[in-house]
Amino acid sequence: MRFDEFIRPGMIVRDVKQRYPETVEVFEKLGFRGPCDDCTIEQVSRKYGLNSLDVVGELNRVILDKAL
């Protein structure tokens, strides 16, 4: 996987879900709901009191596991 394919905090939730469907389960587990899909991961993380870097780390683990 190339560096530019990793998920970053400034990415829109909907775009991440479409590009990496395996992340949908992680978003649901963290409480990210449909109305949040047009916001960035960082914005939604802040709204729910989560560290956006932790969220992005978990999302990237999921896509890396699938890539291997």
Looking at this protein, list some descriptive labels:
SP0561-like, mainly alpha, 68 residues, 4 helices
Strand and helix layout:
Blueprint lengths: L12 H7 L4 H7 L10 H7 L4 H16 L1
Cα Rg: 11 Å
The beta-strand count equals 0
For the report, how would you describe the main beta sheet?
A: none
What oligomerization state is this entry in? single chain
Separation of the first and last Cα atoms: 9 Å
CATH topology assignment: SP0561-like
What is the CATH-assigned architecture?
Orthogonal Bundle
Count of discrete alpha- or pi-helical segments spanning 4 or more residues:
4
N-to-C series of helices and strands: HHHH
Structural category: mainly alpha
Q: What is the name of the CATH class?
A: Mainly Alpha
Q: Any idea how many domains?
A: 1
How confident is the prediction overall: mean pLDDT?
94
Q: List the uncertain runs.
A: none
Proportion of β residues? Answer: under 5%
Shape: globular
Residue share in helices?
40-55%
